[in-house]
Predict the 3D structure of the following.
Amino acid sequence: MTSSVVNSFIYENLKLISQFNNQTKLCIYEPTHKLYIVKDADLSFKPTYEAIMSINNPHLAKIFYIVEKADHIEVVREYISGDTLADLVKSHKSLDPDLAVNIAANICDGLSDIHKIGYVHRDINPNNIIVSSDGHAKIIDFGIARCFSQSKNADTTILGTPGYAAPEQFGFSQSDEKTDIYAVGVLLNVMLTGYLPSEQKADGALGRIIDKCIEIDSRHRYKNINDLKEAIYNKLQGDSPMDRVIKQIPGIRSQNTLVVILSIIGYFCAIIFSIAVFSTVKNGSFFQTTISWLLCFPVPYFCFNNFLNIWNRLPFSCGASKRNQRIVYTFLGIMSILFGLIIFGLINS
C-alpha cells in the first residue's frame, strides 16, 4: 500500500485521548500505540500544509495526512514528546547559552527547508517550538505561513505574535524570509535573558548576532536564514567554555577598544590592590580578610554588572522586572561593600 493509503487508514482509525483546545486534539492509533496530533485549520491553508508535508526535516513536525472537510481541513502530524520552549523559558528564566544556541540552530535548519520551497513561517515564537526529550527543537505550527510573492508590496493581513513579529508584518512591506530571521533573533534573546530585546538585550558575540537579526530595516539583517545558521553554528562550535566566560566579563565583552583597554587596566589595579591587602594580613585574620575582600569586590561586581546573568539565576529575583532587579542588586552591592569595609576595619582596629 502507498503511504497515502496507509495514512488514510490510520486517520480513520484514530482514537481521541484528549482535546487541548477547539482546534487541537491528541489521538492514538491503538494497533501501534503511536500518538498523533490532529489540528483543525482554515481551508485556505491547505496549499501551505501540502507544501510543508513534502519536506522531510528533523526540525519540522512531520505532517502525515490532510483531510478536507466542508469548511476547514484536519491536519494529522506527529506527536513530539517534550516541552514547549515557552515552558522551558518560564521554568528556567534563561537557558544555558549552549542549549539556546543549539535550539536556534535547529530552528534555522527547519526554516531553511521552508524557505527553499518559497514559504515564510511568520510566527516563530516559544509556543510554536517544542524541545523534544532528546534535546532537539522542532517547529510545530505552520498556521500563518505563506508563500512569498514578488508581486506584492505588503502583507494583506497583520499577523504574528507581538514582540516576535517583524516591522514589515504590520503593513509596511511584504514579509519574506528575513521576517523569520527577525523572529529567530528575538527568540534567541529571550532564551538567553528571559526577556524581549526591548526589555533586556543579550551581550557579547550572541548579542551582536541578535542585533543584526532584529534590524528595523530588513536590508541590514542577515541575507538569508543560511547565513544566520552559519553564524550560529560558528558560535556553537567556536568557543571553549573559558572563551564564553571571558566574553561575558563586563568591559572586555565590549567591542569598543578603549573600553576594553580601560577595563583591563581597572582589573589589573584591583588585583594589585587585593594583593596589597592580603600582604598586610595579621596572623589569624586571613579568614576575616578573605570575607571582607569578597564582600568589597567579587560580590558587588556580580551585583552591579549582572555577570553571568546572575539577576535571572537567583530565585528571589528571577521573576522580577529588569528595573526592579537593578534596584535590588544595586542595593545589595552597596550593602556588601559597606559590610566588607566594616569587617576590614574591625580586623585592623
